[in-house]
Amino acid sequence: MPSDAARLIPRVDALRAELVAIRRDLHAHPELARTEIRTTKIVADRLRAAGLQPHLLPGSGLVCDIGPNPVVTGRRRVALRADLDALPLQDTTGLAWSSVVPGVAHACGHDVHVVGVLGAGLVLAELAAAGELATGVRLIFQPAEEVQPGGSLDVIAAGALDGVSQIFAVHCDPKVDVGHVGTRIGPITSASDEVAVTLSGPGGHTSRPHLTGDVVFALGQVVTQVPAILGRRLDPRSGVNLTWGEIHAGTAHNAIPARGTVRGTLRCLDVRAWEKASEVFHDAVRQVVEPYEVEAEVTHQRGVPPVENDERATALLEAAARDVLGEDSVLLTEQSLGGEDFAWYLTKVPGSMARLGTRRPGGRSYDIHQGDLRIDERAIDAAVLLLSRVAMVAGRA
Q1: What number is the average pLDDT over the span 74-87?
Q2: Is pLDDT at 392 greater than 60 in this prediction?
Q3: Stretch 67-93: mean pLDDT
Q4: Mean pLDDT across the stretch 117-126?
């Protein structure tokens, strides 16, 4: 019997031109979170053309089962996940398939994620039809990864993980050469929460700060002292990071305002520290502003937990990469303080996410969430091969 790689590579070769064309079409017509209607239809229509029966989720997104029924095999399905949404950014790539939607762009590579899982699904469907797929596979095309709360929570609530034993995904990494993937056991991305502190007081003249609560001065203490307190109250190994991105107070240089707000993000690589961080954050703000006779309103909006890659699932992903991409294709990836709502799936079932290299060897390194992001489209082949192979390996394990 031919090896898995020998069975996969010709099938991926046959799909290459079509998948590149679909990716370029999606890139030219990006859709924001929870509006991915066109994208969902394109994926659903292609799956139906392959003889599959996709199930549309409320609003946007879909799931699609392939291969043997777990009731027959006694084996739970393996899931592959892609995210559908784009970002509210202007596309500045200048490519022929640049976004035609003003102010919206696939600047995080989700268009590549979509065709990677779609291509894997088409390959696996062929194997299933030939009786060569041992375990059922579920494709998950998820809306709204880029917002909080993310679409993964809606997908889970809709039952997409029912009967699933493991889940896998890739995420574009434009700092890694195409044909390589980055993996890591444990936290690979960070918890990411939105936080805000609003201070209020009676206001007054800047010549008499002793007669009022000085909101601006107190905000300054919050900005500088609260991150330092978190660094001493939470385990420094947890990678806790509080960074402010927005501050508003006052409209005149000689008037102490009655209200001011600072907003930012609270990130953490350790789920236990993340669970404790909210209480510590609230306490720190109260302690810092207490001497200044101002009132504090503290908001902490939970975002996503860290993506914690399971050891066994990561080993399967690495083995799959070496099989189909080459022995030297696997790299140890760095941890990121960015958030990824794939994390919510991993609170329900074990799984792993790999960073998919999208940089042309010797070429420029780009960054995600930037309008000029360019991707070497050979990464599509790599994604399809990797996801197809890991679904087969995990199904047998």
Answers
A1: 94
A2: yes
A3: 91
A4: 98
**1 pLDDT exceeds 50?**
no
Q: Which pLDDT value is given to residue 2?
A: 59
* Mean pLDDT within 102-113: 98
3-state helix/strand/coil string of the chain: CCCHHHHHHHHHHHHHHHHHHHHHHHHHCCCCCCCCHHHHHHHHHHHHHCCCCCEECCCCCEEEEECCCHHHHCCCEEEEEEECCCECCCCCCCCCCCCCCCCCECCCCHHHHHHHHHHHHHHHHHHHHCCCCCCCEEEEEECCCCCCCCHHHHHHHCCCCCCEEEEEEEEEEEEEECCCEEECCEECCCEEEEEEEEEECCCEECCCHHHCCCHHHHHHHHHHHHHHHHHHHCCHHHCCEEEEEEEEECCCCCEECCEEEEEEEEEECCHHHHHHHHHHHHHHHHHHHHHHCCEEEEEEEEEECCCEECHHHHHHHHHHHHHHHCCCCEEECCCCCCCCCCHHHHCCCCEEEEEEEEECCCCCCCCCCCCCCCCCCHHHHHHHHHHHHHHHHHHHC
- Please report the pLDDT score of residue 211 as a whole number: 87
In the chain the domains, ranked by start, together with CATH numbers, are 4-189+307-396 (3.40.630.10), 191-304 (3.30.70.360)
**What are 173-221's pLDDT values in tens digits?**
999 999 999 999 999 999 999 999 999 999 999 999 998 999 999 999 9
